[in-house]
Every structure is written in structure tokens, then in C-alpha cells.
């Protein structure tokens, strides 16, 4: 897996102070994508999981990480993304994980494979759905278009229903 970028600190990619990891590669190719360069699986540098985890551990201001792209949950990236989340949570057990994906939760669950199930269990908040340029809305928080949902995955699985964050 390649990485299109990493921010040590951000307050615009989820609630609170967060690190942000942008993975490379995306099959969606949404018109108007804000990170078009990250659509290529060959863009960026090789992912160094330990280097990123160490940078996060050294930054006491952080309370979470956001994983974006590209597409972190495509078949080409999901296993390595999940391994990263699991290793990060070993180092920082209460670290909050947000993930942006062009897939809907329903599409991900329909895969019905172990790595997707495990990954979804390790994500706290999922921002799902493709960016739709015609539905772009700068007034909404943490989403590019109003079809996208900000899902509280921990409560979705506990309550066995879709639970959107009220933000």
C-alpha cells in the first residue's frame, strides 16, 4: 500500500485533534474529487506503519486518527489498513478511529468477508458514500456531499441499526 500523505495534526477531518492518513488508490473516481491525485495506486510513498505509529505516539495532543484516501476500504488496501488500526490501538487503546470511504456501510457489510468485518469493528466513526458533486454542500460538517453519512459504528453494531452522529 502507498500513502498519499500524512498530517500530524488536524481539526478539520473529524472531532478533536487528529492525525490524518491518506492512502493511495481509489476505484470510485468520483467527479470533483478533492484528492484526485490519490486515486492512483502508484501515487505517493510506501506505507511505513511503524513510522506513522511512532509519530502519533510522540504527539500528546492527539485523541484520534482519520484514515482517508484514496479509498482505505477497497480490496487492495483494507487488509493493511486494518493491520495498521489494530497495531495502533495496541499502542493507544482508547484512540478514536474515523475512516472515510466511498462505499456505503451496506456495501461493505454485503462483502461478508472476515477482513471487512474486523475492520468495521475497529473503526469508531465511518463517513460513508461516494462524493457526489451535484450534492456538494459546504454547510455540513465532515462531509463533502449531503448523501454521505457520519456513522457511529460502535453504536450501529450494538443497536443493530444505522446510527448517525448528530454533528
Which structural class is indicated by helix and strand composition? alpha/beta
Sheet bearing the most strands, described?
Answer: 7 strands, mixed
Kindly estimate the percentage of residues that lie in beta strands according to DSSP: 15-25%
Return residue spans where pLDDT drops below 50 for at least 5 consecutive residues.
none
Helical content stands at 25-40%
The CA-CA distance between the termini, in Å, is: 32 Å
- Nearest-integer average pLDDT: 94
Silhouette: globular
Number of strands: 7
H/I helix tally:
5
Provide a descriptive summary of the structure in words.
This protein has 167 residues and is an alpha/beta fold. The protein has five helices and seven strands. A seven-stranded mixed β-sheet has the order 3-1-2-4-5-6-7. It is globular and about 40 Å long. 36% of the residues are buried. The model has no long low-confidence stretch (mean pLDDT 94).
Amino acid at each position: 500500500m502507498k500513502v498519499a500523505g500524512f498530517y500530524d495534526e488536524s481539526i478539520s477531518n473529524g472531532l478533536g485533534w487528529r492525525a490524518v492518513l491518506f492512502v493511495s488508490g481509489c476505484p470510485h473516481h468520483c467527479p470533483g474529487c478533492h484528492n484526485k491525485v490519490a486515486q492512483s495506486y502508484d501515487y505517493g510513498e510506501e506505507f511505513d506503519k511503524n513510522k506513522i505509529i511512532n509519530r502519533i505516539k510522540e504527539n500528546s495532543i492527539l485523541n484520534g486518527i482519520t484514515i482517508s484516501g484514496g479509498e482505505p476500504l477497497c480490496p487492495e488496501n483494507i487488509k493493511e489498513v486494518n493491520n495498521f488500526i489494530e497495531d495502533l490501538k495496541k499502542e493507544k487503546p482508547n484512540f478514536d478511529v474515523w475512516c472515510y470511504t466511498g462505499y456505503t456501510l451496506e456495501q461493505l457489510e454485503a462483502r461478508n468477508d472476515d477482513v471487512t468485518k474486523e475492520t468495521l469493528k475497529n473503526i469508531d466513526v465511518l463517513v460513508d458514500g461516494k462524493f457526489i458533486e451535484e450534492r456538494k454542500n459546504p454547510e455540513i460538517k465532515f462531509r463533502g456531499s449531503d448523501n454521505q453519512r457520519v456513522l457511529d459504528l460502535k453504536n450501529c453494531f450494538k443497536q443493530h441499526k444505522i446510527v448517525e452522529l448528530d454533528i
